[in-house]
Amino acid sequence: MPPIFENNAQRDQYFMFEALKEAKKAFKKEEVPVGAVLVQNDKIIARGSNQVEMLKDATAHAEMLCLTAGSSALSNWRLLKTTLYCTLEPCTMCAGAMLLSRIQTLVWGAPDLRHGANGSWIDLFTNDHPFHQIEVRSRVLEEECSLLMRSFFQTRRQKSINSVFGSDESA
Questions:
Q1: Which residues contact 6 (CB under 8 A, 6 or more apart)?
Q2: Catalytic option among 30, 31, 53, 63
Q3: What is the pLDDT of residues 105-133, one digit of tens each?
Q4: Got the DSSP string for 121-132?
Q5: How many Å apart are CA 47 and CA 35, to the nearest integer?
Q6: Which residues in 95-114 are b (16+ Cβ under 10 Å) and which e?
Q7: Is position 63 annotated as part of the catalytic site?
């Protein structure tokens, strides 16, 4: 039975924590830790985590995989009356897929200064689209989402340094 929420803030935090679980799965697989869940009627119908490195596919973003799984779950490419929760502000590719998929709402966590398509780099959601508008709520659990990203890239930099200079563990 889906949880009962008093307001959107409670709902958004609950499902963003679920998206963070997906991001942590990506982290453990040494993928950029981005996670997504697609929700309809307060029930998760699809999940996704980054698989770019594993699949060797630049389009294997958490959001794209989650939208594809959602289409399968609903047997329809139109993801009407759904909310996509994503730990990172979507890129232009993912934003376009969201518009084309007709999701109702997007909720994201941390801003993406390099690729963000909701104002950090460019904004595809504020322009009037001729067929569909997406309601956006941003920076939900921003600190938790940002911390996971920072931790991932710090770990990656340390591994890179260790591979170049060797580890000091034997000293």
A1: none
A2: 63
A3: 999 999 999 999 999 999 999 988 888 89
A4: S-BSSSSPPSS-
A5: 8
A6: bebbbebbbebbbbbbbbee
A7: yes
Task: Report if pTM > 0.90.
Answer: yes
What is the Cα gyration radius of the chain? 17
Residue 45 CA to residue 41 CA, distance in Å, equals 9
User: Can you give the three-state secondary structure of 29-96, one letter per residue?
Assistant: CCCCCCEEEEEECCEEEEEEECCHHHHCCCCCCHHHHHHHHHHHHHCCCCCCCCEEEEEECCCHHHHH
Tokens of 36: 């997504």
- Reported as a single tens digit per residue, the pLDDT across 33-74 is 999 999 999 999 999 999 999 999 999 999 999 999 999 999
